């Protein structure tokens, strides 16, 4: 994989209720952040328009929509979202869904990421949902399938990086949410690491939301994480 600058490895989650708040956050963070994630909360209230605008201004965008539906619907959804100019787009790591996403992407530049198991899930959650596999086994299976089908990367817990790398190979990007700097509250995440631990484990991109957005000085918080990434590299 091409060497990734430390600042490009930090993806800040714009998990905000409206575009005005998101635009204010982007202005506050300035050149400290080059990569933003837009998910359901913001995406459904104008976030796609903002994503296209930010992409046009040179920012990298991660559309975290975790698509999963019948194949035709996924393919057409991916084809539509590919026009925005985003760098990453997530789909759930079900084989039929991943195959449809690859078909819908066509020749577009957007990279497809497979969501293996949400970082808010543990073995008890998987069992309650009816899965017969432990989380680590489920993650490994889905990473192997994603590699075979032709996705570009994997979304997983940083704690599962080594098994994902082993299953998916060296060329797929590993993107990890639930990163918590030392001293931060875990919140609703159950499988977390610090930025330095994640980089040392082999993660390529770190998704950070609340530890930056809720900080007294978000820009300083982002710069601190980038510095920690640089040191770990």
Explain how this protein is built.
The protein is an alpha/beta fold and 233 residues long. The chain has a single domain, classed as Alpha-Beta Barrel (TIM Barrel). The protein is 47% helix and 16% strand. It contains eleven helices and eight strands. The protein has an eight-stranded parallel beta barrel, surrounded by seven helices. Strand 4, helix 5 (95-105) and strand 5 form a beta-alpha-beta unit. Helix 7 runs parallel beside helix 8 (161-168) and helix 9 (195-201) runs parallel beside helix 11. The longest helix has 17 residues, at 40-56. It is globular and about 45 Å long. The relative contact order is 0.14. Residues 185-191 have low confidence and may be disordered.
CATH class category name: Alpha Beta
What is the average of the pLDDT values?
92
List the strand order in the largest sheet.
1-2-3-4-5-6-7-8
Assign an overall shape: globular
CATH architecture: Alpha-Beta Barrel
Poorly predicted regions: 185-191
Major β-sheet profile: 8 strands, parallel, barrel
Q: Helices and strands, in N-to-C order?
A: HEHEHEHEHEHHEHEHEHH
**Whole-number total of structural domains:** 1
Alpha-beta content class: alpha/beta
Q: Which fold name corresponds to the CATH topology?
A: TIM Barrel
How many helices in DSSP terms?
11
Output the CATH homologous superfamily: Aldolase class I
Radius of gyration: 17 Å
End-to-end separation: 15 Å
**Beta-strand content bin:** 15-25%
Pathway: Pyrimidine metabolism; UMP biosynthesis via de novo pathway; UMP from orotate: step 2/2
Family: Belongs to the OMP decarboxylase family. Type 1 subfamily.
Enzyme class: lyase
GO biological process, one term: 'de novo' UMP biosynthetic process
